[in-house]
Amino acid sequence: MFHRVLLASAWLYLAVLANPARAQTVDVNGIKFNHNVALGGSALQLNGAGTRYKTIIKVYAAALYLPAKAATPETVLAVAGPKRMHVVMLRDIDANELGKLFTRGMEDNSTREEFGKTIAGTLHLANMFAARKKLVSGDQFTIDYLPGRGTAISINGVQQGEPVKEPEFFNALMRIWLGKSPADMLLKNALLGISAPERTVGG
């Protein structure tokens, strides 16, 4: 049985690598997220995807990828293995302002002790967005967590500096969207798979 599971996982990983464009996708306001992605030698599955709104304005589309489905924030934070948060901008925005909002979201959803362990990562995040100055519609960034390496942030496919090694940093970032005071409650539910994806497109 174990060998069958291992073989199935290996097949999925190779299939995603060989032809990711054919993977089934979810369409979120015109942004297509694959149901499966490969990260750090592992095959991840789409846990949920949705849109961040500010009043009625669409800000960005986001998708959460995990090794296994998780329906609660606690399970997302506790699940072992690689994880990915993928964000695609739906409008132009001041990158420095977005960085400040992310930092505030981390602080609002963490205890003082938890936030204290993320200072190095938070400074890296703030400097990264400040240097970028502006994000335009279509720009995208990924937040990838790899056990033993830390959290790497890439903008438009280019990694921004070295990974942040403190494991608490990734969880603090995830609480922006999944914490008790999330950026958008509807997006939180979408990322947890509680609400249905907007549209599924066959591959």
Describe this structure in words.
The chain is α+β, with helices and mostly antiparallel strands and about 200 residues long. Helices cover about 35% and strands about 30% of the residues. The chain is built from 7 helices and 12 strands. The protein has a 7-stranded antiparallel sheet with strand order 3-4-5-6-9-10-11. Strands 2-1-12 form a 3-stranded antiparallel sheet, with no helix packed on it. Strand 1 and strand 2 form a beta hairpin. The longest helix has 17 residues. The N terminus and C terminus are likely disordered.
Global morphology? globular
**DSSP strand (E) fraction?**
25-35%
Distance between the terminal alpha carbons, to the nearest Å? 29 Å
What order do the helices and strands follow? HEEEEEHEEHHHEEEEHHE
If strands are numbered along the chain, what order do they take across the biggest sheet? Answer: 3-4-5-6-9-10-11
Rg calc: 16 Å
Number of E strands: 12
Q: What proportion of the residues is helical, as a percent range?
A: 25-40%
SS-based class: alpha+beta
Number of helices: 7
Poorly predicted tracts of residues: 1-22, 199-203
How is the main sheet built?
A: 7 strands, antiparallel
What average pLDDT do the residues reach? 86
Write the layout of secondary structure elements.
Blueprint: H1 2-18, E1 25-28, E2 31-34, E3 36-39, E4 42-54, E5 57-66, H2 73-78, E6 83-89, E7 93-94, H3 95-108, H4 112-116, H5 119-132, E8 134-135, E9 140-146, E10 150-155, E11 158-159, H6 167-178, H7 185-191, E12 200-201
Antiparallel strand pairs: 1-2, 1-12, 3-4, 4-5, 5-6, 6-9, 7-8, 9-10, 10-11
